[in-house]
Every structure is written in C-alpha cells, then in structure tokens.
Design a protein that fits this description.
Shape: globular
CATH architecture: 3-Layer(aba) Sandwich
CATH class: Alpha Beta
Number of domains: 1
Structural class: alpha/beta
CATH topology: Rossmann fold
Strand content: 5-15%
Strand order of the largest sheet: 3-2-4-5-1-6
C-alpha cells in the first residue's frame, strides 16, 4: 500500500509538471499565431487607421490653437477701445458686428487673469434668442447657459488654452451666468466682468447690472444698438444716454469701416443698412 501511494504521488507530480509545461507552450503558440496573423493582416490592409496612433494630425484635430502673442489691435479704433478698457472702470463698446468688440474684451480679460491682475472673469448676457425659441435645454443652469457664451469660450481657449479654461471653469475662476442671476452680487476689485449683447437688455436690467459694480472692478459692456431683439426700450442705448460724462466711464463707438471680420461682412452691412 505504501509503495502504491508513493507511486500515485509521483504520477500526479509528473502530470502537473507536464500540464504546466504544456500550458506555457500552448500560450506561447497562441501569442505567436496571433502576432503572425496580425502581421499578415497589417501587410495586406494598408488603408486601416489605428485609432490609438499618436500622429500629429489626429492628436491635434480637436485641440484649438493657442495664440501666445500679446493682443494687438487691427485698426486704430480697436487700439482706442483697448486703451479705454485698460484705463477705465466701465467701458461701453457699441457698433456693428465684426468690429472686434467681444474679441478685444475677452482677450484682455484672459491676459489679466493669466498675469494675476484679476482672480475671476464673469461672462454674462441676456438669455434672449435671436428671433427663435430654442425650447427646453437639458442639464443644469450652467449647461443650459453654455450655448450663450460659446463665442467667449472660443476666445478664452485661443488666449489661454482649452485645458486652462476647463480648469478655471471647474474652480470658479471663469464664470458664465445669465444676467438675471446678477442681482444681489457685487463685482469686486479682482473681477473682470463682460456683459455682451447688451442691446437685448431692458433699462431695468441694465440698471440692476450697473449697480453691481464695486470699487476698482473692470466692467465692459458690448452691443449693437441697431440689432436689438427686444420690442421695447433698449437698455444699452438708455444707459449710454444716462452715464455719458461720468468719471471712470468711457463710451466707444465703432463705425462700419472698422469691421475686421471680413470684407464680405462690410458689404453685407452696406446692403442691410444703407447710409
């Protein structure tokens, strides 16, 4: 019995060693066949694109190009507008589309945030659609309002980089909020505030916004009085008439000849608004 038990143990030991060697050889054979099959497939299919490749074109397809050069004016009117924003607490920029009102304000806000002169950028505009109703938008308030400030996000992505902008949005360094949510807030001295499409504000909304301005805050209000989507009184025009001549306030008006978006836009404006 003892000899038979010893023989069974040796037999099981030999079988386990054989199974182990066989499984290792089997794995190596499978890997070898898989590599050979892949090489054969790769050599016969030259039009297959590896989605995990790190080619320069695929890697930068959705990465916006960051402009690292300082903001420079394209027209004398833009230079005057840029100087006004830098030197005044409250600046109004009015004029036709394509003159660079929003771009200059957004780029200056990005430069101030990057240099540490300010701690927060607030972007706001009235939630008014241009002649159509978008209906229900899914998500939280930030998600619903994101469509209204997409243009400014493109500007900030270009000046700061999309990664920095995403970080600042998550941590409250860049805030986009509807104009109706400004009530009760105070714009402190470390904040750069931009109110865009201000021609769609009512006089009451504009009064509420202007009374949020704290000491040494930087506030820019942009809009085109001729493109208001409201039927009633225009808050932008009303505010300009009321605050004209106040210290610390600058009102800059762009002309049609200051359009830099394209020559076609200037010609289109001539057709829609002939002198």
């Amino acid at each position: 019995m003892a000899k038979r038990a010893q023989f069974n143990r040796q037999s099981r030991s030999n079988n386990s060693e054989f199974d182990s060697r066989y499984s290792q050889e089997s794995k190596r054979d499978k890997e070898s066949r898989k590599k050979q099959k892949y090489r054969q497939y790769d050599s016969t299919n030259h039009n297959v694109v590896d989605l995990n490749s790190h080619s320069s074109q695929l890697g930068t397809a959705y990465a916006p190009h960051r402009c690292k050069t300082p903001l420079s004016a394209q027209t004398p009117a833009q230079q005057q507008y840029i100087n006004a924003i830098r030197n005044h607490c409250l600046t109004f920029g009015t004029g036709p589309a394509g003159t660079g009102k929003s771009y200059c304000a957004g780029a200056l806000a990005a430069e101030a945030l990057e240099s540490g002169r300010i701690e927060r950028i607030i972007l706001t505009r009235p939630a008014v659609e241009a002649g159509e109703n978008l209906g229900f938008l899914p998500g939280e308030v930030e998600d619903k309002y994101a469509v209204y400030i997409d243009a400014f996000r493109d500007i900030l992505n270009e000046r700061l980089g999309s990664g920095v902008v995403d970080y600042c949005l998550r941590h409250g360094r860049i805030v986009g909020a509807p104009l109706a949510y400004m009530r009760g807030k105070t714009f402190s001295n470390n904040t750069f505030v931009i109110l865009d499409e201000a021609q769609n504000t009512t006089p009451a909304q504009m009064k509420m916004f202007l009374t949020r301005i704290g000491e040494h805050a930087k506030v820019v209000i942009n809009g085109d009085i001729r493109q208001s989507d409201l039927r009633g009184p225009n808050g932008l025009e009303d505010a300009i008439n009321k605050v004209k001549g106040l210290p610390g306030v600058y009102i800059h008006t762009f002309e049609r000849g200051d359009i830099v978006r394209s020559g076609l836009v200037r010609k289109i404006m001539d057709r829609y608004e002939p002198d």
